[in-house]
Amino acid sequence: MTILQTHDLKKIYGTGENTVNALAGVNLEVKQGEFVAIVGTSGSGKSTLLHMLGGLDRPTSGRVTVDGKDIFSLKDEALTIFRRRKIGFVFQNYNLVPVLSVYQNIVLPIQLDGNMPDANYVESIIETLGLQSKLQSLPNNLSGGQQQRVAIARALSAKPAIILADEPTGNLDSRTSQDVLGLLKVTSRKFVQTIVMITHNEEIAQLADRIVRIEDGLIVDR
């Protein structure tokens, strides 16, 4: 089953001589449960693509379909709600709320939606990511690798259709990077979770099920 699809996705910045075609017509399909790495150099369009896939920015033209929904057919408020329910994010800088405990950070997306966490499911995520002893800690008291594991747990907690990971190991040393990526792969398998990861690191990309390459705003290898 296709969970994520783009059709002729384009993003143009500027006008006239200053025009930049950040995305030049991207067509991409991701199946449910796949772990896909999108690889490209700086300026290739990979971060722009991630922002489009997550509904963080609107394209100049084209479509993005997530779990059967054309996300850019939604108005801003409806898109925000859809994004909170259907798309999990793991950022390079973790983006944890510093005044909330680890557990509070993990369940935050669920509570923002006015729902109660699925206690057994959240407990399973916490156990899988080895965070049992850190639940009452504040993010600033954790190592970078631990903070990224909390970010992964938060992304998983609302049972999203997809998780988008933007250079998730960019601030980590090589050993911690391997640990975090290994956990991403484990969670993808265990929870049948679709993950799309942006990276410039070829070694890290090899851990994914499939590698998609982007150059000059176009998919050149899938």
Main attributes?
6-stranded mixed beta sheet; Rossmann fold; 4-stranded antiparallel beta sheet; alpha/beta
Tally the structural domains.
1
Reported CATH architecture:
3-Layer(aba) Sandwich
How is the quaternary structure best described?
single chain
H/E series, N to C? EEEHEEHEHHHEHEHEE
What would CATH call the homologous superfamily? P-loop containing nucleotide triphosphate hydrolases
**How many separate helices?**
7
**DSSP helix fraction:** 25-40%
Mean pLDDT: 93
Low-pLDDT windows of residues: none
Structural class: alpha/beta
Looking at the structure, the CATH topology is: Rossmann fold
**Global outline:** globular
Strand order of the largest sheet: 6-7-8-3-9-10
Beta content comes to 25-35%
| Terminal CA distance | 18 Å
* Global Rg: 17 Å
Secondary structure: elements and pairs:
Blueprint: E1 2-13, E2 20-31, E3 35-39, H1 46-53, E4 61-66, E5 69-70, H2 76-86, E6 87-91, H3 102-112, H4 119-128, H5 144-157, E7 162-166, H6 174-190, E8 194-199, H7 202-205, E9 210-215, E10 218-221
Parallel strand pairs: 3-8, 3-9, 6-7, 7-8
Antiparallel strand pairs: 1-2, 1-4, 4-5, 9-10
Helix pairs in contact: 3-5, 4-5, 5-6
